[in-house]
Design brief:
Elements lengths: L2 E2 L13 E5 L3 H14 L9 E6 L1 H10 L7 E5 L15 H5 L3 E5 L2 E7 L4 E6 L2 E6 L5 E7 L2 E9 L1 E5 L7 H4 L11 E7 L10 E4 L3 E7 L6 E5 L2 E3 L2 E8 L5 E5 L5 H8 L4
Parallel strand pairs: 2-3, 3-4, 4-18
Antiparallel strand pairs: 1-5, 5-18, 6-7, 6-17, 8-11, 8-15, 9-10, 9-14, 11-12, 12-13, 14-17, 15-16
C-alpha cells in the first residue's frame, strides 16, 4: 500500500540541512555543484531532506538507499522521463520544500529459490517480474495466499507491481494503472499465450503471491526485483513489506497520486 499525506512538509519548520546527490551525467553534476555552493552539503543520513538530481532510475536507487529512514527525498529532473521527479529547480529551495506533498512508498519483498537451492531476497519499489530466458515460453503456476489460482500460465513472463510502479513496466504490459490509495497490487501477464485472453488480476495489498516454475530445466526463467536479477529460479514469493518505507516529495499540485490519475487520461 502507498499512503499519501496532506500537502505539507512532513516535519516542523523549513528544511535547511540538505544532502545533494547526482546521477553521473553532465547536467546533474553541474546542478549538484551549483546547489552545494549555494546551500552547503550534509551527509544523507544527517540531512532534513535528500535532493536527488537525475532521472527515474537514479531516483529508484536513491529511494532504495533511504528505505526505513525518516528522511524524505525530493527529485529534480536531470534525466529523460522523470515521472518520479519534479520538473524544475526552485529559486528558494528550503522554502519550496516546506510546501511539498509527501507520498510514503512501501516496497515489495521478493524471495526466490533457484535450481541449485540458493535463496535470494530483494526489494522492489516498482515491480517484481519473471521472464523466460530462452526461446521456450515459460510455464508458471500462480498461487495467492497458498491457494493455486492458475495451474499453468504459458507466457513470456508475469509481474507484480506496486501502485507507484503500475505506470511503468506494468502499463507497458497492458496492466492496469492503480491509484495510490487503492491498496491493490496488479498481477499482470507478459505476452500470455495460454490462457490467451487472461489479462491478469488486482490483488489486495496483503496478498502473498507464489510463482512456481513448471518444467524449469526445459523452460528456464529469471526473476527481477528492481535492480536484482536471479537466473534459473524455480519458485518466487512476493509480498508487500510494511516494515519498510521511503518518503518521496512532490511540488504542490503535482503529487504522485495526481500524476498517476493523469496518466489514465493520456492518449
Amino acid at each position: 500500500m502507498t499512503e499519501v499525506h496532506p500537502p505539507v512538509w512532513p516535519h516542523s519548520g523549513a528544511p535547511h540541512r540538505l544532502s545533494f546527490i547526482s546521477a553521473p551525467n553532465e547536467q546533474a553534476r553541474r546542478t549538484h555543484d551549483e546547489l552545494v555552493a549555494r546551500y552547503g552539503q550534509y551527509a544523507p543520513h544527517d540531512a532534513d531532506a535528500v535532493i536527488c538530481l537525475g532521472g527515474d532510475g537514479f531516483m529508484l536507487e536513491t529511494l532504495h538507499s533511504m528505505l526505513g529512514e525518516p528522511i524524505p527525498v525530493y527529485g529534480i529532473n536531470c534525466g529523460s522521463v522523470g515521472f518520479l521527479m519534479n520538473p524544475s529547480l526552485p529559486d528558494d529551495l528550503p522554502a519550496h520544500l516546506a510546501q511539498t506533498q509527501a507520498a510514503t512508498l512501501h516496497p515489495l519483498r521478493m524471495c526466490s529459490i533457484d535450481r541449485a537451492g540458493v535463496e535470494t531476497k530483494a526489494l522492489a519499489l516498482n515491480d517484481v517480474f519473471l521472464f523466460r530466458q530462452t526461446r521456450q515460453a515459460a510455464k508458471i503456476e500462480i498461487a495467492v495466499d497458498g491457494r493455486v489460482r492458475m495451474p499453468e500460465l504459458i507466457c513470456d513472463g508475469v509481474l507484480v507491481s506496486t501502485p507507484a510502479g503500475s505506470t511503468a513496466y506494468n502499463l507497458s504490459a497492458h496492466g492496469p494503472i492503480v491509484p495510490l490509495s487503492a491498496n491493490l497490487l496488479p498481477l499482470t501477464p507478459i505476452s500470455a499465450f495460454r490462457p490467451r485472453r487472461w489479462r491478469g488480476a488486482l490483488l489486495p495489498s496483503t496478498a502473498r503471491v507464489t510463482l512456481t516454475i513448471l518444467e524449469s530445466e526445459k523452460r528456464p526463467v529469471a526473476a527481477v526485483a528492481d535492480f536484482t536479477e536471479v537466473r534459473d529460479v524455480v519458485r518466487v514469493e512476493i509480498e508487500e513489506d510494511r516494515t519498510l518505507h521511503a518518503t518521496l516529495l512532490f511540488d504542490a499540485g503535482q503529487s504522485l497520486s495526481e500524476r498517476i490519475l493523469a496518466e489514465q487520461f493520456t492518449v
